[in-house]
Design a protein that fits this description.
The protein is mainly alpha-helical. The longest helix has about 35 residues. The two termini are about 20 Å apart.
Length: about 160
């Protein structure tokens, strides 16, 4: 069997590919949605605790920024579901998959920002040491490596054009 005789990809139509990609995307979104919704739910309760009134003004601002980031991440990660529901049956699934994929990517970036801000807030309140920015930076670098650098390296390394 020659190289040309071997299958070099999936034998699927554009619609079949869109269906497959949609299923994969929704599975990925479920994981991210769960995390962002739990974090966002927790953040919403903080303002109603007695400790909130004792926070320094800078930490209250950081809390508000974190809640807004959490709300926007939640919106972006739930967006693909709404998109699918509103365009279902309109023969635009390939385009819907592209837009849902973009929303998911934006949601992941916003989730990264939310988790960074939440970690910074929690560590600022828990300690007053100067190592907090370094610790948060280390965690952010870890997220970047796991969520973006490794996937982009694998994409570059193992994707043929």
């Amino acid at each position: 069997m020659t190289q040309e005789d071997r299958r070099t990809g999936r034998d699927e139509t554009q619609e079949e590919r869109a269906d497959r990609m949609w299923g994969e995307l929704i599975q990925e979104v479920r994981v991210a949605q769960t995390g962002v919704q739990i974090l966002f739910g927790f953040l919403l309760t903080v303002v109603f605790t007695p400790k909130y009134d004792q926070l320094e003004h800078a930490n209250q601002i950081l809390y508000i920024v974190t809640v807004v980031l959490g709300a926007t991440a939640t919106g972006a990660l739930i967006g693909p579901v709404s998109l699918h529901r509103l365009v279902s049956g309109r023969s635009v699934k390939p385009q819907a998959v592209r837009w849902a994929s973009r929303l998911t990517f934006v949601g992941l970036v916003l989730l990264l920002a939310t988790m960074t801000a939440a970690l910074l807030l929690i560590l600022r309140v828990a300690t007053h040491d100067g190592y907090v920015p370094w610790l948060v930076s280390g965690v952010v670098i870890w997220y970047l490596l796991c969520w973006f650098v490794l996937p982009m390296w694998a994409r570059h390394r193992h994707t043929t054009r």
